[in-house]
Design brief:
By secondary structure, this protein is an alpha/beta fold. The protein has 2 domains: about 220 residues, Spore Coat Polysaccharide Biosynthesis Protein SpsA, Chain A (Alpha-Beta Complex); about 70 residues. Helix content is about 40%, strand content about 20%. The protein has 10 helices and 13 strands. The strands form 3 sheets. Strands 1, 2, 3, 4, 5, 6, 11, 12 and 13 form a 9-stranded mixed beta sheet that branches. A two-stranded antiparallel ribbon has the order 7-8. Helix 8 runs antiparallel to helix 9. The longest helix has 24 residues. The chain is globular.
């Protein structure tokens, strides 16, 4: 098949039952197929797939490898020109996939792209996880076109032109398979959260572009696996954000010393967040930030692993790549 829509599932049987029929219907007649990879769910998801969707290929993993390890293992078994990573809690309308495929076909330099991500609960508003494509501020805090902090905008056509962005949400992310393989997939240490930002950033350091394609839109429930209030989710976000900066900032800034100073400031700001959690009696959140920093320190000097090749500018016009990255990041 040309496009493989791969849904990574972990204990979200109800979402599969609700949204998978619409996904299958939406790609009828296209050179595309749906594959479900299961991270050792215990809620009966594999049984549901065998009984309700026996024609959908099912990849069974032996344990929960998270978003990163699960997709890395699943996509090793998939042959397609384009991979479409899709969360199980996403509803798709008719015609959502074609604009993404057409964009990749007509832009061979594009390594990844994503649709407008709208809220399933409020279909006229952008959804928190990705909105109309993502950026990062100078201290490494991700934000989106259509969302800053927790405030999201109404979709009134203000982002209806395709735009180059730093990252597209992993809730619905199309990746050129050749770019995925060149990058070594996702960094397995992340487990979940920030991994798609890291992947998109690394792609652009290697000369690929990342785009938001607003002709495509999908509706995301959000928090299908980990709720926003989860201390575990908080720990992953704080830890992985620092790992991502440590990996990519030196090449983007053109200076290791500048990157270290920027990360030091970011860690100080994290400390302020931890104090605020403590003062507001959110003890589990305070501990999550402290644990995230401990894990970051343990991992930061050991990131050159098979699943996360070091970014480089080999064979590229580095001035163009670095300028583009600085403009997006506000560096």
């Amino acid at each position: 098949m040309k496009t493989a829509v791969v849904i990574l599932n972990y204990n979200t049987k109800d979402y599969l039952e609700k949204f998978l029929p619409g996904i299958l219907s939406s790609i009828e007649g296209m050179d595309a197929g749906v594959i479900v990879a299961d991270n050792a769910s215990t809620d009966g998801s594999p049984r549901l797939m065998n009984e309700r969707f026996p024609d959908v290929p099912l990849i069974l993993l032996d344990k929960n490898y998270g978003f990163t390890g699960g997709y890395n293992r699943a996509l090793e078994k998939v042959q397609a020109e384009y991979f479409l990573l899709l969360n199980s809690d996403v509803e798709v309308p008719e015609g959502w996939l074609s604009p993404l495929v057409e964009w990749m076909d007509s832009h061979p330099e594009c390594g990844a792209c994503g649709p407008k991500l709208l809220s399933w609960y409020d279909r006229e508003s952008f959804e928190y996880a990705g909105a109309a494509g993502g950026l990062i501020d100078r201290y490494g805090y991700p934000y989106c076109r259509g969302r800053i902090l927790r405030k999201t905008e109404k979709d009134e056509g203000q982002y209806d032109n395709p735009a180059q962005v730093l990252w597209a949400s992993g809730a619905c992310l199309m990746v050129r398979s050749s770019a995925w393989k060149a990058m070594g997939g996702l960094d397995k240490r992340f487990f979940a959260h920030m991994e798609e930002i890291d992947l998109c950033w690394r792609m652009q350091l290697e000369g690929w572009s990342v785009w938001n394609v607003p002709a495509s839109k999908v509706y995301h429930v959000g928090g299908g696996t980990l709720p926003k209030t989860s201390p575990f989710k908080l720990r992953l976000n704080f830890r992985n954000n620092l790992l991502m900066l440590q990996k990519n900032l030196p090449a983007s800034l053109g200076s290791t010393s500048k990157a270290r100073r920027r990360i030091f400031i970011r860690m100080t700001l994290d400390g302020v967040s931890a104090i605020l959690y403590l003062l507001t009696f959110r003890w589990s959140c305070f501990k999550a930030v402290i644990q995230a920093h401990k894990e970051y320190r343990a991992l930061r000097d050991r990131w050159a692993v098979v699943d996360a090749p070091a970014p480089s500018l080999h064979g590229l016009s580095s001035g163009c790549i670095l300028l583009g990255s600085r403009q997006k990041l506000g560096l």
